[in-house]
Amino acid sequence: MQPYPRPVGPALATRDLAVDREHDLATCVVIVNWNGWRDTIACLESLLALDGPPMRLVVCDNASTDASVAELERWLQRRLASWRRAQGESGWIATSSGEGVRSVHVLRLPTNPGYAGGLNAGIRWARERWASRNFWLLNNDVIAEPGALEALVAAHGATPRAGVCGSVLLEWDEPERIQAVGGIYRRWLGVGWHDKELPQHGGDVSLALDYPVGASMFVTAQYLDEVGLMDPSYFLYCEEMDWAERGRRRGYRPLVALHSRLRHKEGASTGSRGGVRNKSLLSERYGIINRLRITRRFWPWYLPLVWASLLLVILDRSWNREWARATLVLRLMTSPRQWMN
């Protein structure tokens, strides 16, 4: 089994991006893009509109094939025309002091390491340059509502031993509807789902979850130092569950900031919008592999039951005449090398 990513050390601050040191404690926002520059631009627009705590934005492009980097840089050049270009970097730096976004950077990765791998690359890149205490990790298909970051900072700061802190996700087309508050996981089946009900207590924080949904995650540098980065071996799905569980075993508590809200398109990068019947083969593959992998890692006594439950998945896919997906699940069940590393 692949070991966990090693904890990240303190920021090195080895490169001069001509940014004042007083801004080094700005929250670093890392966004992963893969063939989705239009969604990424919408996400960046929403972050640029936020008031409140200072932020640095780092877009990690996972080797897109749709000219994403060129499109993003072209848009940033127009949108941030009055900002200064970072020397030796694909980045723009605000010329005035204050709150909100202080700089925007585009990091081009040579290969696609998956969602966790892209976030890890952005975190490492940022910590080599700045002494950020806080990190906000985002899908590119989200739009932040006003006050989203302020609510995360407040909720995390008010909760003892706060671990990974999530946001309340809203439906993209119907933002008055809640898409997810937090994740609930049934270990004996290897199945997780999104709780859509806000708690009745009406507070600022909810601890009634197993993991925050990975589209928006807020962590501190201390968490990174003690727990480590996300595990990139998952590639897609379950990475936030793994991260939260590793933190829990070190005494950290996952939580949700109930007043941090983001609209989420869901499934934009994986081609899986519209529920289980529209799930792509890519999503099916990693959903099955990681269901078995995370069980084996944390709750191995449930592995035989979780493995047997996949027969019901095959039955469901066959009943709905989804033969390619049924065949894929069967092949993965009988290929333990796919999920035992």
TrEMBL record:
<dbReference type="InterPro" id="IPR001173">
    <property type="entry name" value="Glyco_trans_2-like"/>
</dbReference>
<protein>
    <submittedName>
        <fullName>Glycosyltransferase family 2 protein</fullName>
    </submittedName>
</protein>
<dbReference type="InterPro" id="IPR029044">
    <property type="entry name" value="Nucleotide-diphossugar_trans"/>
</dbReference>
<keyword id="KW-0808">Transferase</keyword>
<feature type="domain" description="Glycosyltransferase 2-like">
    <location>
        <begin position="28"/>
        <end position="170"/>
    </location>
</feature>
<dbReference type="Pfam" id="PF00535">
    <property type="entry name" value="Glycos_transf_2"/>
</dbReference>
<feature type="transmembrane region" description="Helical">
    <location>
        <begin position="298"/>
        <end position="315"/>
    </location>
</feature>
<comment type="similarity">
    <text>Belongs to the glycosyltransferase 2 family.</text>
</comment>
<keyword id="KW-1133">Transmembrane helix</keyword>
<dbReference type="GO" id="GO:0016757">
    <property type="term" value="F:glycosyltransferase activity"/>
</dbReference>
<keyword id="KW-0472">Membrane</keyword>
<keyword id="KW-0812">Transmembrane</keyword>
<keyword id="KW-0328">Glycosyltransferase</keyword>
